[in-house]
Q: What sequence folds into this?
């Protein structure tokens, strides 16, 4: 039987490599912009306006119209491949200001089609930010309490819940690493759909982790003479095929939506795909190895241990 648990240092190293870009990006962005991640107007407040012209235009020239009108913080970039659609982001405006800007843009570039417009005040953006943080914190706390209660019959049930939460943090950080790279490459910003993707990833990751932990609980009763590491490794192998098959089925659907669902869904779908792949990995190679290392006493110390099937940890000097 292939021993996955004993190779946990390798899995932890791979996780660290995947997480590092996101951590470095958040540190850099905090110092340069004041926030760990680039926030869209969903959280900061502002106006997002997407317009389509009859001919190709340069986004820098469109932006210049807004700068001259008194909106120096405007950002503009092309959307799509035809060079005719420009998305602009700038501070909140009212209806009269919008009409004045539209007249100036039309005067310079000719008629255009408004494809998307929304304006969010800074107060609403701050409320959304607080709600987003609260949602993630409350979800994590409830997951911890539920897993601890569900596994109350085993030794150290809170370790199961904590290991699952650490796997969730792993998945969030891996997703942030991907998002930070895409911000540098394509200017992606954190919006409401990003939070939705993160919460979905958390749900998928917890589902897989609980399946593995439940098999560990069953095998603890069946193989009482085996060490905890051996039982955990057996449980991983027994559930790996189911976990991978379930996630691949979901990923096929997400990839299809990514390819054919349109530009508005691409960022959301790409984030989900990365998160689900990370969730599958963390359930198999992060949550369970952390639980084993903790049960053996080697998570925070270098001592080697043996854990009998009853779940009690015996230190070996």
A:
């Amino acid at each position: 039987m292939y021993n996955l648990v004993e190779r946990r240092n390798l899995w932890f190293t791979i996780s660290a490599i995947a997480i590092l870009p996101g951590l470095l990006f958040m540190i850099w962005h905090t110092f340069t912009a004041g926030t760990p991640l680039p926030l869209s107007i969903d959280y900061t407040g502002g106006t997002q306006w997407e317009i389509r012209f009859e001919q190709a235009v340069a986004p820098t020239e469109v932006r210049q119209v807004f700068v001259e009108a008194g909106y120096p913080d405007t950002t503009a970039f092309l959307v799509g491949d035809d060079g005719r659609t420009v998305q602009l982001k700038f501070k909140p405006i009212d209806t009269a200001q919008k009409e004045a800007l539209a007249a100036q843009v039309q005067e310079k570039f000719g008629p255009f089609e408004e494809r998307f417009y929304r304006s969010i005040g800074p107060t609403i953006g701050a409320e959304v930010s607080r709600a987003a943080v609260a949602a993630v914190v409350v979800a994590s706390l409830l997951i911890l309490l539920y897993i601890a209660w569900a596994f109350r019959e085993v030794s150290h049930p809170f370790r199961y819940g904590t290991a699952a939460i650490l796997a969730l943090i792993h998945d969030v950080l891996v997703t942030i690493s991907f998002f930070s790279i895409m911000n540098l490459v394509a200017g992606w910003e954190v919006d409401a759909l990003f939070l939705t993707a993160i919460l979905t990833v958390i749900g998928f990751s917890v589902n897989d982790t609980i399946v593995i932990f439940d098999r560990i609980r069953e095998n603890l009763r069946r193989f009482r003479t085996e060490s905890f590491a051996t039982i955990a490794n057996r449980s991983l192998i027994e559930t790996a095929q189911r976990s991978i098959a379930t996630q691949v089925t979901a990923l096929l659907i997400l990839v299809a939506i990514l390819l054919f669902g349109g530009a508005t869904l691409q960022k959301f779908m790409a984030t989900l795909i990365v998160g689900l792949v990370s969730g599958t990995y963390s359930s198999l190679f992060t949550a369970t190895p952390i639980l084993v290392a903790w049960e053996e006493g080697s998570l925070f110390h270098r001592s080697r241990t043996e854990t009998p099937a009853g779940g009690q940890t015996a230190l070996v000097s």
In short: Residues 303-317 have pLDDT under 50 and may be disordered. The radius of gyration is 25 Å. Residues 263-296 form the longest helix (34 residues).
